[in-house]
Amino acid sequence: MASDDVFYNSERDAEVYPSVLPIELVLRVLQHLPKQEKAITAKLVNRAARTAFQDYTTVPANSPELPLWALQAHYALQPFGARGLTARAAVGDPAALQWLRVQDPPCAWDSSACGSAACFGCLEVLQWLRSQDPPCPWSSEACNMAAMKGHVEVLQWLAAQNPPWSWNWNKCSSAAAGAGHLQAASGGHLAVLQWARSQDPPCPWDWMTCRDAASRGRLETLQWLRAQDLPCPWNESTCTEAARGGHLSVLQWARSQDPPCPWDLESCRQAAEERHPEVLQWLSLQ
């Protein structure tokens, strides 16, 4: 079993002390702890507490829910690899990241740590990872993950760093469209594609961007893509993916445009295979 998969088990890893309080009071105190704290603290008290909280007895050593003190206790017994550090980056836990990296030897890291921080919008963590000497590795996946989750401020920072990789902007814009980041303008998600298209030169897009929006049923996204001065291109795959996903309103809108979105028999086949009778019925009437 890989070290990343080893569970922190306080019954094995720490001495169990008897409680000096009545068990009723102990259980009442434990009830007020966060779930991740219950998972470990109960086993440090006594057998009765362990029994009462038997559903909260172990936490994976690389889990982002593992408290820092428990992570430190486990790491002293059996260090783990990059997955543990990546989990902390995902939840924006700079204290744990800093502690893991000052160990001797430092906890390993790879580009997935930056990708995780970008995915969850943890810009400060991402900046810290890249400010180290040497910096944490990164890749274009950080851009794609930030776009998929609608974190425009992360995208802006990444672009300003002049990263060494060749940015796959098509994948970036498709990720944003597929995740429907135009449907929640009040949450700032509209800014993702707007920002990408406002760059000089603009973020490229292609038929895959419309396809990915249609595949998730993102009608508002698709409408915005096609309403631009130079509309995002589309082809038969837009209708095919809408039919595959059972997104009848998307399919109807695409075909109502002037000129209509192209389609072919694949739309019927996909609607039948995925068992969308309402889509298939509408297609048969066209």
From TrEMBL:
The protein, known as: F-box domain-containing protein
Coiled-coil region list: none
